[in-house]
């Protein structure tokens, strides 16, 4: 398929917020008349939507960019455009390591991608200086409707806000995406209805801090009201809350988690650590005691709660005893789904100036130990599910001929949590009850 405007291929990297950015940019250029193609080898333009959060993610982004530049050098691609989080904070890195890029579009100017593509096609000149904005210069709340979705039809990510006002010492997100801005509730509901009409049965709520919603506009936390709105939308069966900040969880939110059947009894709440001194150095605003009290409150009031969390190991100054405190916390099963990042010493983060940096081999060893302990805890918990009946949302075919369908339970978000393997062939988006017949560790074998 060809049009006068040409074809565009997309490479989307990073978190679900970045994925939504990619989907809105794809929707915008498709509406303009560009042909969107999955084959970047012969595309007129390849857009790489980068992640700039950690050094490892920037290296991955640069690897993809340079692979596209190599194709351009061979005549397979005409233009390479770099978008996303790397453009604002790490333009110097792009200038040094990817000098052949044709245009840069910052995460805060993603609505201008079509303008950039038109300039490239008409002038033939480089547009490297176009669309580089200060994240706080506009205060924009973006419209994520009319997306061209990358996810399967039966689930979708729904962003309720932009930016972040927290000052975590390890994080550079506020400098990339700006101050916190709540998206208007009416706009969120309209977007959710559009997603439901497009086949979405599960909405996965994302933000930099979803529990901060409303403080900038209503002067109070109102994410529970937004979630209640979403649960009333026809066609939506599951609503899943991600990225809750532990100091912002309210009783109103807990009550809704407990009573609303469409709202999964699941909350993703990055704790980052459990040792109070480490949390203080991270500037998280929480302590061991406040964390344990919150978890106890959640467990006592929300039946069948699944708590997902992420942690950082090897933070500057983390002692052996503080790391062991974290390990014991994981062993005790306070969280049901956990991930960990080895500390990344980011030069644009406040933690870069901290004393007590740990050697890389120590950080790596601690990360390995955390993941091993966490795996054993998860495997033991999944073993206890054998014989129980769970609700499953089918995601698609599996690789196992004996269990040809794959899905997830209410306790599992896509890509990051466990999977369910089902006997029989079932259409993606099907909701069904299934009995757990065996645990494979990370996966459960189930019989509908």
Task: Describe this protein's structure.
The protein has 448 residues and is of the alpha/beta class. It has three domains: 7-137, Rossmann fold (3-Layer(aba) Sandwich), CATH 3.40.50.12160; 141-383, pyruvate-formate lyase- activating enzyme (Alpha-Beta Horseshoe); 389-447, OB fold (Dihydrolipoamide Acetyltransferase, E2P), CATH 2.40.50. It is 35% helix and 22% strand. It is built from 14 helices and 18 strands. The protein has helices at 16-32, 55-73, 85-89, 91-97, 113-123, 135-138, 173-177, 185-197, 223-231, 251-259, 276-282, 288-301, 320-331, 360-383; strands spanning 7-12, 35-37, 45-50, 79-84, 103-106, 155-159, 161-162, 181-182, 202-206, 238-241, 263-268, 306-313, 337-342, 389-400, 403-409, 419-422, 431-439, 443-447. The strands form four sheets. A six-stranded parallel sheet has the order 6-9-10-11-12-13. The protein has a five-stranded parallel sheet with strand order 2-1-3-4-5, with helices on both faces. Strand 3, helix 2 and strand 4 form a beta-alpha-beta unit. Helix 13 runs parallel beside helix 14. The longest helix is centred in the C-terminal third of the chain and has 24 residues, at 360-383. The protein starts with 6 loop residues before the first strand and ends with a strand. The mean pLDDT is 92.
């Amino acid at each position: 398929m060809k049009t006068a405007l040409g074809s565009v291929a997309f490479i989307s990297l990073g978190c679900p917020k970045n994925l939504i950015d990619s989907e809105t940019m794809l929707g915008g250029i498709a509406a303009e008349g560009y042909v969107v193609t999955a084959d970047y080898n012969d595309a007129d333009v390849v857009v790489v939507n980068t992640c700039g959060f950690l050094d490892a993610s920037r290296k991955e982004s640069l690897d993809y960019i340079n692979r596209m530049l190599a194709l351009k050098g061979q005549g397979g691609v005409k233009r390479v455009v770099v978008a996303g989080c790397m453009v604002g904070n790490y333009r110097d890195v792009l200038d040094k390591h990817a000098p052949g890029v044709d245009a840069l579009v910052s995460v805060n100017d993603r609505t201008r991608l079509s303008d950039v593509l038109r300039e490239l096609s008409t002038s033939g000149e480089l547009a490297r200086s176009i669309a580089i904005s200060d994240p706080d210069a506009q205060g924009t709340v973006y419209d994520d409707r009319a997306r061209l979705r990358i996810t399967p039809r039966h689930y979708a990510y729904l962003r309720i806000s932009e930016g972040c006002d927290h000052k975590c010492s390890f994080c550079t997100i506020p400098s990339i995406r700006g101050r916190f801005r709540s998206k208007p509730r009416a706009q969120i509901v309209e977007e959710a209805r559009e997603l439901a009409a497009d086949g979405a049965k599960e909405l996965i709520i994302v933000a930099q801090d979803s529990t901060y919603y409303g403080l900038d506009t209503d002067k109070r936390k109102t994410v529970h009201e937004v979630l209640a709105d979403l649960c009333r939308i026809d066609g939506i069966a599951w609503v899943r809350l991600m990225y809750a900040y532990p100091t912002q969880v309210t009783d109103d939110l807990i009550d809704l988690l407990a009573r609303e059947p469409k709202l999964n009894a699941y909350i993703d709440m990055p704790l980052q650590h459990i040792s109070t001194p480490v949390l203080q150095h991270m500037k998280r605003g929480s302590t061991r005691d406040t964390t344990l009290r919150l978890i106890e409150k959640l467990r006592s009031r929300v039946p069948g709660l699944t708590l997902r969390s992420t942690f950082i190991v090897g933070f500057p100054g983390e002692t052996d005893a503080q790391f062991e405190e974290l390990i014991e916390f994981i062993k005790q099963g306070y969280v049901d789904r956990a991930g960990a990042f080895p500390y990344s010493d980011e030069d644009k983060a406040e933690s870069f100036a901290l004393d007590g940096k740990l050697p890389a081999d120590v950080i790596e060893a601690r990360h390995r130990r955390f993941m091993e302990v966490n795996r054993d805890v998860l495997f033991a918990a999944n073993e206890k599910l054998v014989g129980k009946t769970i609700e499953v949302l089918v995601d698609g075919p599996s690789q196992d001929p004996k269990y040809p369908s794959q899905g997830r339970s209410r306790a599992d978000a896509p890509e990051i949590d466990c999977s369910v393997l089902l006997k029989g062939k079932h259409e993606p988006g099907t909701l069904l009850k299934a009995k757990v017949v065996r645990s494979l560790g990370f996966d459960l074998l189930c019989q509908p």
